[in-house]
Amino acid sequence: MARITLSNLAHSYLPQPKSEADFALKEMDHVWDDGGAYALLGSSGCGKTTLLNIISGLVHPSQGRVLFGERDVTLAATAERNIAQVFQFPVVYDTMTVRDNLAFPLRNRGMDAAYVSARVNQIAAMIGMEGNLDRKARGLTADAKQKISLGRGMVREDVNAILFDEPLTVIDPHMKWELRTQLKSLHREFGHTMIYVTHDQTEALTFADKVVVMYDGRVVQMGTPEELFETPAHTFVGYFIGSPGMNLLDAKVDGAVAQVAGQAVPLGAAYGEPTGRVQIGVRPEFVRLSATEGLPATIRRIEDVGRHRIVRAEVAGVAVNAILPEGVSVSPEMTRLVFEPGHVLVYADDWRVRPQGAQIGKAA
Amino acid sequence: MDKTVNQKAWFLVLPVLVLVAFSAVLPLMTVVNYSVNDTFGDNEFFWAGLEWFEEMITSDRLWDAFWRQVLFSGIILAIEVPLGIFIALNMPKKGAWASVCLVLMALPLLIPFNVVGTIWQIFGRVDIGLLGHTLAALGVDYNYTSDAFDAWATIIVMDVWHWTSLVALLCYAGLQSIPQAYYQAAKIDQASRWKTFRYIELPKMKGVLLIAILLRFMDSFMIYTEPFVLTGGGPGNATTFLSIDLVKMAIGQFDLGPAAAFSILYFLVILLVSWVFYTVMTAFDREDQR
Fold first, then answer.
1. Which of B112, B223, B102, B218 is closest to B171 using CA atoms?
2. Using CB atoms, which residue from B187, B204, B287 is nearest to A58?
3. Where are the beta strands (DSSP E) in A112-246?
4. A277 and A349 in contact (C-beta within 8 Å)?
5. Distance CA B274, CA B282 (A)
6. The dihedral of CA B228, B234, B238, B243: what is its sign?
7. What is the ipTM for the molecules in this complex?
8. pLDDT of A157-178, one tens digit each?
9. CB within 10 Å: which end of chain B, N or C, has fewer?
């Protein structure tokens, strides 16, 4: 087991990358702590899988270094890195039995037979396949095969890290929850570094201690689920995490006040005078309806989703959502939206602007 | 629910029945007719019962040709299948070289059989052929027209040259269908090259490989043109395979009765082997679905 350091790392699939746009992974420096449970979150094509394959050695980066602990493994082959990886679609050895499939990584490393059989039984119990150990893997359903793939990933105790590349895509929802819980308990038990790629925020937030959000080949934020929710470092994080995502409005910011569509919106802190494309962002959870104060808005509709209601509104032609907690009444005169000042964040060219001086509330 | 019975549906299969009758059943019946009769021409037939079959089944000449044929098919399968797999494994998977390789591999398959025979007939000649002359110059005592071993060697090399591409191309197609993730998983699991082949590539190639073996078996078991052009069945009877022997008997000696019985036995052997193949292949398919 080891800490994983990515130093000055970038990757392009083109042999001669010219501009930044040619890079699937833009230059990055990150440290992944030993024993951490990380989720790598982002939409399709943002470079998640590339980053994962660089860590596992299936892809060699165009520039930069990968360190496991103090050892430079940038050019080391996958086999030398002692890593386990589970892929999006099940990979099983069709002609082998389930038992042989699970034992394969151990036997290839010359482990002792008694240990192999004990370990295989343990993993089989974990993935719920004790009864099928002597069946051929070929005829099994897709989710049974994926469980075998997961089992093969977890069977080695001495791995540096276990990488999961959207492993639960083909699993049905009930089983998903169960397997994720088992991955969590496995993590607690053995303390392997785990990196879990997904585009499902629920999966990411429930699995990981730290969530790494990627956007367009860049890691835009690495933080706890709470940090991602409270203080998204990039507008993409705001929009991608949360349901519905963060509201973003073009604004002109001067000190502790933003001007949106000719109206003043108080901010929880002073931001000076940021330049570029300036936006304010506020989560729907911190927007409320009012009849007397706030920004005038057009209410499009109110959706009742059970626990709460979502107000779909427009301010100066831009969609703004608000979440109404249970028990809050709505009347036809309430056509204004109030943003809680402590939860309004400021973005310049999509990146969060840190407030200056004394701060109020959560924006700190 | 009861099945609807509509006897008129039989009319719908009538065209196929007529077609099959004219293309297969009637010609086959003519052969059957010859095999149970004796004829001296003039469309005059004398009933002979199973006499020709008895004669053929106990004929040393037929059995010799049969074992020669089995040996030939056995040898070329033993060479072409592993060689084809080896070539397929080493062909580039993508890029310009992949296309170049595919075209080069396909070339021998496009040459007509008698031309292949002629090419090797000349190629192997000691007086003017590149191969024969070179071997002679190197001091190898090689002459496919007088030495049985040389004749066999030449025919086998010719067949390998002509048909290994087919096996290679089929295997290549099978290999191309393996998702990259399997190779990546094998690397992560630290599988050796042999284990990757044994547990990933071979199982995925199994279907096409069976077809390749079936095709190569059938073709080699019925081989006629190439050895006929190259050696004419000689020296002596050394390369007289079943179909060459059959033609000699039917057209050379005009023994139509025995030749007809011979054809039917020949046909039954091929039918039997194909049935075995079919059974094995469907058994594999069933296993896949289970």
1. B102
2. B187
3. 161-165, 193-198, 210-215, 218-223
4. yes
5. 12
6. positive
7. 0.74
8. 888 888 888 888 877 888 788 8
9. N
